[in-house]
Specification:
The chain is built from 1 helix and 2 strands. By secondary structure, it is α+β, with helices and mostly antiparallel strands. The protein has one domain. The chain has a two-stranded antiparallel ribbon. Strand 1 and strand 2 form a beta hairpin. The longest helix has 12 residues. The mean pLDDT is 61.
């Protein structure tokens, strides 16, 4: 699921996640458009 950020803007993806979950996923590191973490 971490590969998803490669297709969309990392900031936009983060906003979508916040809207869906109501909070940001744990251990999310955004680097050069790649989202890593969020795996509880």
């Amino acid at each position: 699921m971490a590969k998803t950020a490669e297709r969309v803007d990392p900031e936009a993806a983060e906003v979508v996640r916040v809207r869906r979950t109501g909070k940001r996923p744990p251990t999310v590191i955004i680097d050069e458009g790649i989202t890593v973490g969020g795996q509880d």
